[in-house]
Amino acid sequence: xxxxxxxFSQAEPSQPQVLWIGCSDSSFEEIAALGLRADETxxxxxxxxxxxxxxxxxxxxGHYALHVVKVKHVVVCGHYGCALVKADSNVGLGDPWRSKLxxxxxxxxxxxxxxxxDDRDRRFVELNVLAQMQVLAEIPEVAAAxxxxxxxxxxxxxxxxxxxxxxLEAEEPAAH
Length: 176
Ligand SMILES: [Zn+2]
Fold this sequence. Notes:
By secondary structure, this protein is α/β, with parallel strands linked by helices.
């Protein structure tokens, strides 16, 4: 485990304890970079690690992870250098991803203005992760699991240059 304050090692062996929401075009190395084993995770990937609260794949995977497996952690993990989550443009994305990111851009524009291009993209990746944490926290069954059994939601960004995962503080104001 490389991140302080997180302990993913309390479950039974081979019992998945993490629902991992990652991006489709990451290097797929971020889970290993955290020291997690494949059998400890239920992985949901889509473009831009966006949790679609009205999408059947996200909802069914989330329901399975939360209510059948009863994972203890949900991790939303973006990655720097993402080809899909860009501060200034959609790269051929269709809906609902295009509209979700367009809305986020409009909401957090003030936080991006004045930053150099690379920093804008990096910050936008972080803001997107924070936004997805907020989306998750507002889903009634997720909120119930947080309240009843201490489910935790974590926001992280993988840096492929350093092979490290940066943890985003949940207390940081989300994008909207
Ligand atoms: Zn990506």
